[in-house]
UniProtKB/TrEMBL annotation, chain A:
This is Putative hemin transport system permease protein HrtB. The chain crosses the membrane at residues 15-39, 237-259, 280-310, 322-342. Its main location: membrane. GO terms for cellular component: plasma membrane. The complex is composed of two ATP-binding proteins (HrtA), two transmembrane proteins (HrtB) and a solute-binding protein.
Automatic annotation (TrEMBL), chain B:
Its main location: membrane. It comes from the Bacteria. This is Putative hemin import ATP-binding protein HrtA. The lineage of its organism: Bacteria, Bacillati, Bacillota, Bacilli, Lactobacillales. InterPro entries: AAA+_ATPase (IPR003593), ABC_transporter-like_ATP-bd (IPR003439), ABC_transpr_LolD-like (IPR015854), MacB-like_ATP-bd (IPR017911), P-loop_NTPase (IPR027417). It is found in: Cell membrane. Residues 4-224 form the ABC transporter domain.
Amino acid sequence: MFLALKEIKHEKVRYGLIIAMIVMISYLMFILMGMMLGLANENKAALTTWSAQTVFLNKNANDNLGQSVITKDQLADHSLNKHEALVGQTATVMTRSKKKAHKESVQFIGLDAGQYIAKDNMPLVAGRHAKNKHELVADESLKVKGYQLGDKVKLNSTAENYRLVGFAKDSQLNVAPVVYGRLSTWRELRGAAPQVVASGIISNQREGASRFKELAHYPIAKFIQKLPGYAAENSTFMFMIGFLMVISLVIIAVFLYILTMQKMPNYAVLRAQGISARHLIGATIDQAVILTITGICGGLVLTLLTAWLMPMTVPLVLEWPLIGLISIILILLGGIGALLPVRMIMKVDPVRALNS
Amino acid sequence: MSVIKLKNISKDFGKGISKVQVLDNVNFTADLGELSLILGPSGSGKSTFLTIAGGLQTPTTGTVTVEGETLEKLSTKERDQLRLNKIGFVLQSYNLLPYLTVTDQFALVRRIKKIGNMSQEELDNLLEELDISQLVNHYPDEMSGGQNQRVAIARALYPNPPIILADEPTAALDSNRVKIVGRLFKDMAVKHHKAIVVVTHDMRLRDFADHIYQLMDGKLTMER
Ligand SMILES: Nc1ncnc2c1ncn2[C@@H]1O[C@H](COP(=O)(O)OP(=O)(O)OP(=O)(O)O)[C@@H](O)[C@H]1O
Ligand SMILES: [Mg+2]
């Protein structure tokens, strides 16, 4: 530690540059991770709010709630229990009528007011629940965008007027805010035939495929993986984060390698003076760890500042266990990066010290 | 008593026609309390001799014994320990770590060899004597060549080793300072009972030596 710290202190510019590099890499990793989780959240937040465990769709729906329709026939011999709710989903444009007319792409979710989601799993941050077909509850993100309780809105190009009476907590689906209304409204927006009841059935219990034989059955994890774009986005982010880890490993290894190479004559002298190779290796690994820890702390500070100061289209979701995990991996990679110069140090020939 | 003993040492570099014999059947002993001077022109093998004596490289033939221990029988780790505890090296170049101040050069020694070093008072006196006590907070690149050399001498003496091996320790010093270093080495040998071996081509050190050797064409001959 002594040698490691003294050297960093004396060579501020050199080590400052390496630290700056690690700051930027870890910052980028944290931001990417935050964006990945933020985006994932916008894909599925509503499902979490509903405590969804099982989803049933039409078998021809291509795994997509918005494209699914189920009919009275398919439900004929079943009545829903209190853990199940009919859900009608359709992508909709909501237009605010007064003030500056404003258009918003939303996911309209039609519910049955008597079933569990509308009754129990729709926590509000403001206003109240809808009492009739002409009242809507919108996701809280629309409140942030300037919508207010009492605003008059239209859905798609239908003539009907609706009123926003509440804002719901954490209700986003397919990266769009959810607007809750009635199933009958959903049917109109969808232009669905009268025998169509909903897009699908959501249950907050684990249910088997045999529950509705005519429908396709999805445990929630599988359903989320099938959300449009979800898996592709996640793997893109994971790939970037993984590659950044490899880059940071290479950077640390290369820098330490070059620095160690320059220090070989000094190390030779120390070896001649009887200082063991182990001690010098320890100093190098200490240095790698000090550099990565300092860099990661810098990256964290920048990440927090960004999350705090910068308005983002996708909100950053910072999960501390994951950030901790990334940090630990980075520190380990720093240590591994130090192994390359370690081989060199082990081979230092003290005789060189006298012959230069 | 001879603390360091080289017996029938030869050293070759290279093979076949490019083979050079740098040391040819060299015999040498150094005793505690004595200052030995080995003189020879550049390229005569002085550094080679010193590194073999200090266990930094192995001779082609012959044996080196330090305080009764045969070096070739020791492991790398044991040889590190021996150098750390028994031998003070003053090297020809790169003696000091560029990123440590003079004070920290000694602090580093203390961290690795925790006992048996000079007391702070002894160190202060030594720095005073070498006229470098005002430089304690300087980095090596903030000092002249001669000042660096004197710090290196202090660095070698600080752990109190019984043996000092010095390679051209006075190359960068003016005549006055050569006298100071010569006298210091002589004092160290006599008062502190050390064996001091200096290889050099600096004739100015002759006056302080108990024994003088000449190294020429691989042969070591005793002059006095
Ligand atoms: N590792 C080596 N490989 C090949 N030849 C070497 C090696 N080390 C030293 N030599 C040769 O051995 C001879 C003696 O070298 P050495 O460094 O011992 O001389 P020196 O007396 O210390 O010289 P100087 O006064 O210039 O320091 C030189 O001719 C040198 O080229
Ligand atoms: Mg030499």
